[in-house]
Amino acid sequence: MSVADVKKNAQERMTKSLETLRADLAKVRTGRAHTGILDHVMVEYYGSPTALSQVAGINLIDARTIGVQPFEKRMAATIEKAIRDADLGLNPSAQGDVIRVPTPALTEERRKEMVKLCKSEAEDAKIAVRNIRRDGNESLKKLVKDKTISEDDERRAVDDVQKLTDKFIADIDKMVAEKEKEVLTV
């Protein structure tokens, strides 16, 4: 393993942490309806849990309503129950062959809870990035101990890993600030 490998590995893992945060923040509800809210809803389909997007078409009817169109009509009741049981605070209602999922307006208190949730997710991502930095630094120390690189090379590489860490933490802060602004917008 070389210094370049350590840096590349750290960057790839930090990028994955950032993508995980992006996915987690997409699930946080804002005042507007968006189809991402239903991404992790699982429906019982022929005895196995299946993602809602695999058994129904999901679209926006208007700014506050999501429309779910089951591919099979007999799945409507199952889909409706799965959305209700997903603990999202949503109350779907079937109208013909379309399930309407209205998203209730968020209260100020609920918006503040959502912001806290976003900040908690961000802190988890920062911890993951810092752990990756620590792993990278330990790998560099091991390279010095094995006499593969010099201590000067290690110092430069540790500085590079720190710069990478700072960049990713700044990206996390920026991402959370945007989401916070989105959540607090009425």
TrEMBL record:
Q: Name one Pfam family in it.
A: RRF
Location, primary (coarse class): cytoplasm
> GO terms for biological process?
cytoplasmic translational termination
Report the domain of life of the source organism: Bacteria
Write out the annotated subcellular location. Answer: Cytoplasm
User: Is the keyword Protein biosynthesis in the record?
Assistant: yes
- As given in the record, the signal peptide range reads none
The answer to keyword Protein biosynthesis applying to this record is yes
Keywords, alphabetical: Cytoplasm, Protein biosynthesis
* GO cellular component entries: cytosol
**Domain Ribosome recycling factor stretches:** 22-184
According to the UniProt entry, its GO molecular function terms are: ribosomal large subunit binding
Query: What family does this belong to?
Result: Belongs to the RRF family.
Q: What task does this protein carry out?
A: Responsible for the release of ribosomes from messenger RNA at the termination of protein biosynthesis. May increase the efficiency of translation by recycling ribosomes from one round of translation to another.
Name used for this protein in its record:
Ribosome-recycling factor
Q: What is the lineage of its organism?
A: Bacteria, Pseudomonadati, Pseudomonadota, Betaproteobacteria, Burkholderiales
The record's gene field reads: frr
